[in-house]
Amino acid sequence: MALFYQPEIPAGVHYLDQEESRHCVKVLRHGTGDIIKILDGKGNIYKAQITTASPKECVFEIIDTTIQDKPPFHIHIAIAPTKNLDRMEWFIEKAVEIGIQEVSFMLCKNSERRILKTERLEKKAVSAMKQSQGSYMPLINELVSYPDFISKTREEQKYIAYVDFSNPAKLYQTASPEGTYCILIGPEGDFTKDELELAIQNGFSKVSLGNSRLRTETAGLAACHILNLINLQ
């Protein structure tokens, strides 16, 4: 059964937006009386019956609600967006499928992209959440400067992925399960020495993601996967 998304159900909104309504009625051919499943991105999965099958505003009534527990950990990837936005869309899509709770975008000294609109990324996240049968929509934060982000980070386990092959600390060996994590992923030109020092001064530990030199979006996905695997043990 296809999943639909309406984040405002807890506030009393019992209709799909125009894009979701069109997909439901025009593409999937659902009609009045049909049963559908809807996510609100907050852990609730609704069984609903369509009462008005309009492609502009598909109205429904809630029949049943189930709640999926939050995972006992919080993965926050802070990443410098790539010049090619498609690569960030790929990262968001795959990270949501694997499991991520928060994504932030940082403007670093070596960043190639200095302006970022998150609307397309949020749509990719919604699509990936539905595709992977997830029930929590990750928080996607706007682009901020690297120093501003560093100063406001509050996670318990904080790491900076830095290209330094003499660094013996591997993320999979360093992170412990059921924590709140923040890992910094730099631009293709990597973090500067000053940025690395600023992170360390603010409680971040330098870690390696492996023996290969990874592209920005690959590094972000690798970190997300490693932290999920740690929490499956």
Describe the structure in brief.
The chain is α/β, with parallel strands linked by helices and 233 residues long.
Walkthrough of the structure:
GO terms for molecular function: rRNA (uridine-N3-)-methyltransferase activity. Pfam families: Methyltrans_RNA, PUA_4. One of its GO terms (cellular component) is cytoplasm. Residues 71-227 form the Ribosomal RNA small subunit methyltransferase E methyltransferase domain. It comes from Fulvivirga marina. The protein has 233 residues and is α/β, with parallel strands linked by helices. The chain folds into two domains: 3-67, Hypothetical PUA domain-like, domain 1 (Ribosomal Protein L25, Chain P, Beta Barrel); 74-230, SPOUT methyltransferase, trefoil knot domain (Alpha/beta knot, 3-Layer(aba) Sandwich), CATH 3.40.1280.10. The protein is 31% helix and 25% strand. A six-stranded parallel sheet has the order 7-6-5-9-8-10, with helices on both faces. A four-stranded mixed sheet has the order 1-2-3-4. α2 runs parallel beside α3 and α2 (85-98) packs parallel to α7.
By DSSP (H or I, 4+ residues per run), the number of helices equals 7
N-to-C span = 31 Å
Percentage of β-strand residues: 25-35%
What string, H for helix and E for strand, traces the elements in order? Answer: EHEEEEHEHEHEHEHEH
Placed side by side, the strands forming the largest sheet appear as 7-6-5-9-8-10
Contiguous runs where pLDDT drops below 50 for at least 5 residues: none
Please state the overall shape, judged from the principal axes of the Cα atoms: elongated
How much is the average pLDDT?
A: 95
